[in-house]
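ok so I'm stuck.
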Amino acid sequence: MGELKDRLAKIPREDGRWLLETLPGSLWRASQTARLHQLLTDFDFMQAKLAECGVQALIEDYDLAMSSDVLLNPEQTETLQLIAGTLRLSTHILASDTTQLAEQLWGRLLSFENPEIVALLEQAKQAQKKPWFRPLTTNFTPPGGPLIRTLTGHSSGVSAVAITPDGKQAVSASFDKTLKLWDLATG
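replied:
not stuck anymore, here's the structure
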């Protein structure tokens, strides 16, 4: 996937953004699942899409790829689920600092022995050009547990939370004297 990084460096930023936005969907529509899977397990793509389009757009690529289990084998599906789960758990961090992707992946996925995850972590390590804190053990909540996402936005403690009857939204009340309406699918 190094060619994607090189290609993005040679084209205008708006063209690069368009490529990052449309490439996963184009591969999915063309049933090129092997290439889509390769793209979604490539750290350079993940970092570029995150920086240019945001964490939710990146998560939606994984949801799209996993929307048809027939196209992926069980190992590929597991890999994409682990990465998507990590991104969801890390949304509140990555939304404010996209450079934390490598640390979030390492801190949440280090305990998994899946070969594709091991390769992704190695690629993330190699991509670091500046000093960074590389966890030696899993030190963040790993994907697959009861915690799915952290919602941030209140400036004081939360005093109450209610889920809408359809289970798609939540309302939180805070001591900062605000109510927030949350879309539970996107945070």
